């Protein structure tokens, strides 16, 4: 009986298109027949034309259907930016940036590619999460956590001066808050 169960379980995994409810396409090759790269650039044009809803739909389709991890990860980053700047859905924005931060993919860009490198996406996503927590959500503890992590991971980044400035404001705000509590 145990062997039948294990055999059935194994077959269900092998034959299933989406084992365990995972919908992200993880066969990271470029064998799709559809031209998702053109769609990606079309989504950027749509943003310029202020057709944000159409752009979001295209980017989400790319994340679900494309097998090209360069396009997928750049689409996640752009979705994070759109939800931050165009819809003020900060939680959704953080969710897209966190997807990038929580993965350890790597890829090489073609020399003429206009896409962002994975290391660039990770660096900017980490900055953006700290920025959103500080400047939009007002969670100073989370902002401090992500900014400190940023400084530890990217000490030579061009964003270090901005992060240091933000951290100084956060630390000063926390100190002032603690002084007010202690005085009452």
Q: Report the C-alpha radius of gyration, rounded.
A: 21 Å
SS content category: mainly alpha
What is the succession of H and E elements? HHHHHHHH
Tally of helical segments: 8
Q: What percentage of amino acids are in beta strands?
A: under 5%
The largest β sheet comes out as: none
The portion of residues assigned to helices is 55-70%
CATH level-1 class: Mainly Alpha
Total number of beta strands: 0
Gross geometry: elongated
The CATH architecture can be given as Alpha Horseshoe
Account of the 3D structure:
The radius of gyration is 21 Å and the shape is elongated. It is mainly α. The protein has one domain: Tetratricopeptide repeat domain (Serine Threonine Protein Phosphatase 5, Tetratricopeptide repeat, Alpha Horseshoe), CATH 1.25.40.10. The protein has eight helices and no strands. Helix 2 (36-48) packs antiparallel against helix 3 (52-65) and helix 7 (140-153) runs antiparallel to helix 8.
SSE map:
Elements: H1 2-15, H2 36-48, H3 52-65, H4 69-85, H5 90-101, H6 118-137, H7 140-153, H8 160-183
Helix pairs in contact: 2-3, 3-4, 4-5, 4-6, 5-6, 6-7, 7-8
Distinctive features:
184 residues, mainly alpha, Serine Threonine Protein Phosphatase 5, Tetratricopeptide repeat, 8 helices, disordered N terminus
Q: What's this, in brief?
A:
By secondary structure, the chain is mainly α.
